[in-house]
Each structure stands twice: as C-alpha cells, then as structure tokens.
Amino acid sequence: MSDITSQSLFELTSNIKEKKLSSEEITKAFINRAEKSKKLNVYVTDNFEKAIDQSKKFDSNPNLDFKLPGIPIAVKDLFCTNGVRTTAGSKILNNFVPAYESTVTQNLWSQGAILLGKLNCDEFAMGSSNETSFFGNVQNPVGENLVPGGSSGGSSAAVAANLTPVTIGTDTGGSIRQPASFTGTVGLKPTYGSCSRYGIVAFASSLDQAGPMTKNVKDCSMLLEVISSFDQKDSTSIDYKRNNYSKELSKDIKGKKIGIPKEYRVDNMPDEIEQLWKNGISYAKDCGAEIIDISLPHTNYALPTYYIVAPAEASSNLARYDGVKYGFRSPGQNLIEMYEKTRSEGFGDEVKRRIMIGTYVLSSGYYDAYYLKAQKVRQLIKKDFDNAFSKVDAILTPSTPSSAFKIGEKTNDPVSMYLNDIFTVPINLAGLPGISIPAGKDKNNYPLGLQVIGKPFDEQNILNISYALEDKINFKNDISDWWLSE
Amino acid sequence: MSKNSEYLIERENKQYEVIIGLEVHAQVTSESKLFSQSSTKFGAEPNTQVSLVDAAFPGMLPVINEFCIEQAIKTGIGLKAKINKKSVFDRKNYFYADLPQGYQISQYKYPIVGEGKVILDMPNGQKEIGIERLHLEQDAGKSIHDIDPNNTLVDLNRSGVALMEIVSKPDLRSPDEVNVYIKKLRSIMRYLGTCDGNMQEGSLRADVNVSVRLKGVTEFGTRCEIKNVNSIKFMQMAIISEANRQIDLLEEGKEIDQETRLFDTKRNETRSMRSKEDAHDYRYFPDPDLLPLEISQELIEKIKSDIPELPDEKKKRFIDKFNLSPYEATILVSDIETSNFFEEVIKNSDVKLATNWITGELFAVLNEKNLEISQSPVSAKNLSKLINLIKDGTISGKIAKTVFEQMIDGDQDPLIIVNEKSLKQESDPKAIEELINKVIENNSDKVAEYKSGKDKLFGFFVGQAMKESKGKGNPQLVNKILKEKLNG
Fold first, then answer.
1. For residue B476, what pLDDT is reported?
2. Residue B2 domain-assigned (yes or no)
C-alpha cells in the first residue's frame, strides 16, 4: 500500500471499507503531515483534536454505506462550520465562530466525512493568488515562492501537497479552476444553483458556487455527488434530478462534439499554452470526439463585465461587516467613526478596492452606464454560449493564460492579476459548469490546466470528457516535498 | 366639491391650496417575518425574535414568506389595484446600527402592486384618491438611545418584519381628507386581515409629502417629505404646520427647498432632517439572493375568491337592504368589528332601533371608556334583547336608557334587570286611565286653563302622568288617553 496521504479518495474509501485502514490512521496521517507542512501556510484554523476524536468515534461503529466513510477533509475557510472559527481570510472575521453549518459542508459530514480544518484563501475570496489573505500567503507545493492561485489557494495547495484527500472551494470568477490549474489538480465549478450557497460567506451572490477540488476526475465526480443538493434555504438553488456522477462516470466520449472557441486565443499567450490546447484537442479526437470551431463573440467583454457585477454585489454583501453585531470592532466616538475605523482596519486593500468599485458602479448617475450595461452584456455572453451549445456538447479551452507566478510578482498590478481569470470568468457570468484538469507543464515544469465547459446541469458530460482526457494525458505532478520540516 | 368645503389657507387676499401625498407603511399581519421564520409578535423581550437571517450572519440567505406575498396581493385587490405578475426585490443600501444587512430588501422599479384607488366618504360627497403603488419591504430594527448613557442599544425583534408601503398619488387636499384616507385604508386592511392598523404598536405609520400652491395654479409646488409620523393627529398637525411654513416662505419671496423633514410633536413644527443634496444614494439594485417574484393568475384568482365583502360594497348593501342613510351606513361599515356587531344585533331585532342604539348610546359609552367595539361592555346578544323589549312595548325608550346603564356593568341581561326592578312598561289602558284621572283631579286649575285654549299645557299633563307612573307608562297610551280625556 502506498503512503496514506498520497492515496486518492477512492483508494482511501476502499481501504476503509475493506478494513485495511481505520479512519483514525488516515486522520492521524494527514495531521502528521500537516504538522510538518506549516511552511505552506494552508491552514487558518485546524480542527485536529476534534478530528481525531471523531475518527475514533467513526471507527467504533463504522457506517460503511457512507460515501465518505470516516474520511478527513479540510475545507476552504469561506464555509461556515458550526463551532469552528470561520474567517473568510479576513481580519474582520478573525474571531468569528458560527453557530451553524453551511449546507455544502453539512452534506460532507452527513456522508461520514470529518472536518480536518479550515483552509487559507484570499480575503472574502477576492484574489487570484491567495496573497490578499489576512493570514498570509500560501506556498504552492509545486515550487517555493510560487503562488498556489486563488482565491481557493489554501485548498489547491492542500490537495497538491497531500494535506487533505480532497477539498471544497468556491468559485466566483475562477477561484476553483485557476488554483487547480496552478497546482496540477482537478477543480470543478458546478452550474449556478447546483450547490447551496447557504452558510457560505458571500462574495458575489449571482456568481458564487461551491465545488470539488481533487487529485483526479473520479474523486471529483464522487465529491460533486455528495455536495450537490437542492436546498430550500437558498432561493437560487435549483430543484433538478442530480446524477450519481461517480457511478455514471465513463470514458466513452465517442461522437461527442467539442467546441473550440477562437476568441480564447489571446494576445501574448505563451506558446506552451497554445501547444497544451492543441494537445488537448488531439487527445479528444483520439477519444473519438468531434472537434468543431465555434465563436463566442463577446468573450472580450467578460472580464470588464465581471469586474462591474462582482464588486457591485460584493459592496452590498460586505456591508454587514460593520462592527455592530459580530466580528472585529474598532471603537469610535460615534457610530460613523466606529464604522470607518472598523472597516478601514478590518478589510484589506483588495477588498476595499472592490467595495469602492462596486459602490461607484451602483451610484446614481453611474448605475445605467456601468451596472445596467454590464447586466446586458452578461446576457449577451450567456447567449453566446447558448448559441454555441446548439452545435456542440462541450467546449475545450485552456484554464488560465499562464502557469503559476512568483509570490509578489503581481501584487502591485491589479489588472494583470485580474487577467488571470480571463478564461474562467465568462463561465461564471453564464452560470455554466466548468472543470479544470491538469494537462501538461510549462518550461519550468509548472502545471498547466485545460478547461472543459458544459451546458447547464451537464456536469456528467464534462466529467466524462475530463475522465477520458485525463487517461490520455496521464499527467504526473512532480512535487518534491521541499517544504517538509521535522 | 362645493366651494365652502375647500381647505384653503389665506394670506392677504391670497388663497393657498395644500397638496398632500402619503406613503403609508403598514405592517403585514403574519406570524413570521418577510424572509425568515422568526415571530413577529409585538412586545417581546428585546432580541428574542431574531433569526440568523434577521441578524445578517455571514452566509445567511433570505427565503420569501409566501404568506406575506398573498397578503400584499390581497391588499392590492382591496385597493382595486393592478397586481403585477412579475416584481423584483431590490437592495436599498445604507448603513445604520439597526439595519444588520447594511441594506433593506425592498421593491424599487417593479413593485408587486400597481395603480389602484381608495374612495373617501367626505361630508359633501365621495372623493377618489389614486394609489400609485404598493410594495413589500423589510422593517429595520430599533435603536434605543435612552437606556444606557454611553451606548446605543439595538433591538432586532422588528428587523425583517414585512411592511407594505402604500404610496398615494398627490390627491389629498386637506387634513380632514388625510384623516378619512388613513381610516379608510386601515378599514380596508382590517376587513382583509392584512394589517391590524394598530398605530400605537407602530403597525401603521406614514411619510407625509406636502406642497402648496396658489389656488387656481395647476402645476405643483416644491414638496417636502415629513418622515415617519405615527398618528393621524400628528399627521394633521404636521401638515398644517408645514403648509404654513411653506406659505410663509413664499410670502417672503423665498424658495422652498426640497428636503426631508421631521415633525417635532412637542413644538408643533417641522424641522429639516436632510436636504436634497444630502439625500442618501441608496444604490438600489436587484437582490441577487432572490429570484424575480412571479405570481400566477391562478393564485390571484384564488385570493380574489377569498376576498370578503369590503367597506364600499357593505355600505351599498346596508343602504339597499336595510334602508340606512348613507351617513349611518358609512359609520357602521367604517370598522369591520362595528359592522359585524351591527349585523349580529339585527339578526333578531329591529334595524332602525339597532342603528340608533349602536351609533348613539353604545358609541357614547365606548368613547367615554375609550374602548374598541370588540371590547364592548354590552354584547350584541343583550343589545338585541334590549331593542326587542323596546319594540314589543315591554319598556319605553326612556326606561331602556336606564336599563342600558345597568347592562354596561358586566353585560347583564336586560330582561332580568327589567323584571328585578319592575321596570316593565304599563300598557294596560285601564291602569293608565286611573293614573290620568288622578292627575286631572289634582290639577283642576290647569285643566281649566287648558280648556280655555292654553294648548301648551298638554306637555305638562304628559309629564305629570309619566311621573305618576314612575316612568313606566306607555307614552303612546298616555298621550292617547290624555287627549281623549282633556279634549273630550
């Protein structure tokens, strides 16, 4: 048997079911490795003691019908967890302990999983490098001083570094897929309305979706199966028949029509990404898929549209962090002064930047020119995809325009940071499912990802295509455990 | 409308007209809040009716309470208004300590109810007031500044309670019309059971828009909005004070600034709260946590079929069926409890007498004791018994008043009172004749005067005869026999 922490979710699950491993052994193995991996800074809050207790409890009376029997899982610190501090990577929630559980994490625990701890992320999920976190940046296990992507950077690093078998992140404009691409892991953003937003600290309500982050496509299908559910506590949750994604997973994609959008060939895109895409296309052909050139004409407008819609919603969603009810408060002589001090000291620069953008675009006199216009463009982007999906079953693109960059390289240039999300953002605006799978490496041996985009609620199809491609690509992450301490 | 009933404010040969529009905030009658399951009960300990949603905890999401939607539709139907099949909840963004989300969920561009109307019964006829719209919104919590010397305390029990904002057109022209309008609105909602209209508990309050213009001018003047006035009396005071303030400014050749003002009830004047320049930029945008609200025709039809008879229709029925005067009918239908009481009384008794007794004696007692008709010390059952005792001649109207005074004390049965105190009317002609004979004998001098032509003395004999009967003589019989004796 290979080292416990390097096993996939399916391996761990079958080892538990076959009684080859106990939940306690597995949990302790991940905890031991975490103790030696502090340099990566993936954890904001650990739940190790309670996790061991729970694993023992599981072992004393194991329910092997569970889909995640006794499996320890760390989650992004954007999910509210009952009795465990939830910070959203922000000073303003530094001391916040929810008395409730998000639906998505509850779905994990209801299938036997055990909370290992809360993973670092960009503050309120605003960032593409995990550098905006109040709790410091996260190291990408792929290479020292490399960003793990963001905002689910703690999550991607934790999966890649074997610190959790699988994890869940959230994706508003690419926050699952881009970090997955940067760390050589798999990340899926489901269709908007698939996974409940109840109990997830909100960034941009009309774009936020939780999703699985895993080492391989099969684990991804299982985790999606567990977390995707209709929830009456979220008015945007959609009641539809969800597949048994893991059971129905298949590499047979013969005859599937896969679209290649010409607009995703952007200026200054490295040749190696162009090559990666070409490889992906030929693998898809090898699997029997039919390749069709398509056009998504409004792609260019997606990023500016996103940077109006998301900050607008965020400026309103973050108004509740005012020092009155919970979280951080900086005292003032009066209410206004308390607000100003609390929010000035409690929020970081990127969050403030987006609150200001959002406030501006909603202001009277600017609303029509920005917010309303952006909503109209959003409809056009959605229509682009509708048109494309009348001809194809899925769309294949690169996940990101580059591989992981150095820590600090883009922190002073927000626009170049925002450009990271150029291939992922349109999918959120259109509410579609998208998955990033590791597909190759650049000249520095850093991972690169390919993105498969599907029709609404067609997660099974993009999982199947990814499963087939994964087999052909045969990607091996080359991680040296350089950060381990004794 | 006749000239003399116009409400005009005079200044040196000039007459100013007052233009009023109201934004009434009516609390929806509902067990739970608009977007959460917390209770809406009034008077609970602070912060005991607050859910995670009401307190805006991270990741909490609003889920619409469908009952509140139905209540709003019902009210819209009561206002003869258009029900919009698609409406949108927006966020109204502003910071305040008792606004936990940092925004109020309201409806801005697309309200649930569109244009409608309310008919006012004014002394000189009916007047129609246009309704601009009705929309649903959340109430905020309450900031309490006077408990702790150094801190403001916040009670979130009200946070998230459903309100209907009912916006009138600027069709109101006097404090009297405002009085009748508010009462009519309240009456319609109480008939429908959509708002209890309890102004003491804050279930009904209004923002009052006031402007003035010279009589004859057709365009509107600059208006000021007086925020959050919570009684009809204060609304009327605020309107008079504000209209006069505006007229004074115009008379001095000054301009009126469009602004939001507050009414100081102690000083009976309005004062500036914020100018147009300082007006909040609420940054309204559709709430992305809630999908647009879609209402099916079936739901509208279902609600329509459950709408009870409303005051206007009831008034028409009372006039047509019971032959009441429009004035009497208006009074009896103004409140659903009153009309129910009336209909209960007339089930077994005379309509005319019931009308007079309810609007006369009963209302006087309720007024005096400051009671609602639902708290009436005399039940409908016993009042109808009393009326029947009058109708069948058992007691006279005058005796009935004495009996009624006793009934008030513990809702006593009038028949028992009449029997116990032997107040039964004397209707035996022989007995009355005896009485009258006695009176005539004792007053032979007056009889002579009467016979010589002093007709006015007839009343004296009636009085004497009634006195002799200890008030129990049947007045009709007394009259009849007296006439026979004296004229015969």
1. 84
2. no
Tokens 């609003």, residue located: B62
Q: Does residue B411 form part of some domain?
A: yes
In degrees rounded to 5, what are phi and psi of residue B381? Answer: -65, -50
Which residue of B93, B95, B283 is in closest CB contact with A339? B95
A213-224 confidence digits (pLDDT tens): 999 999 999 999
Which value does ipTM take for this structure?
A: 0.96
Domain final residue pick, B391, B420, B449: B420
Please report how the helices B475-487 and B429-442 are oriented relative to each other, as an axis angle in degrees rounded to 10.
50
Distance CA A75, CA A42 (A): 10
Nearest residue in chain B measured CA to CA from A92: B58
CATH label of the domain that carries residue A27 = 3.90.1300.10
CATH of the domain at B472: 1.10.10.410
Q: Are residues B293 and B326 in the same domain?
A: no
Question: What would the two tokens of residue A81 be?
Answer: 């967890």
Q: Taking the model in full, what pTM does it have?
A: 0.91
Domain of A124, in residue numbers = 1-486
Q: How far is A210 from chain B (nearest CA, A)?
A: 12
SS3 A352: helix
Instruction: Give contacts of A80 with chain B, Cβ < 8 Å.
Output: 57-59
> φ, ψ for residue B252 (rounded to 5)?
-85, 5
Instruction: Give residue A1's pLDDT.
Output: 59
Strand partners, A169: A211
CA dist., res. B109 & res. B286, Å (int) = 9
Rounded CA gap, B91 and B85, in Å? 20
Query: What total of structural domains would you count in chain B?
Result: 3
Measured CA to CA, the distance from residue B166 to residue A146 in angstroms comes to 58
**Residue A175 is a catalytic residue:** yes
A262's tokens? 């010409």
Q: Is residue B439 part of a domain?
A: yes
Q: Find the domain containing B257 and state its range.
A: 7-303
Q: Which of A76, A118, A189, A215 is catalytic?
A: A76
Please, are residues A182 and A403 in contact by the beta-carbon 8 Å criterion?
A: yes
The residue among B463 and A380 whose pLDDT is bigger is: A380
Q: What is the pLDDT of residues B2-52, one digit of tens each?
A: 445 789 999 988 999 999 999 999 999 999 999 999 999 998 999 999 999
Between CA A151 and CA A128 the distance in angstroms is 5
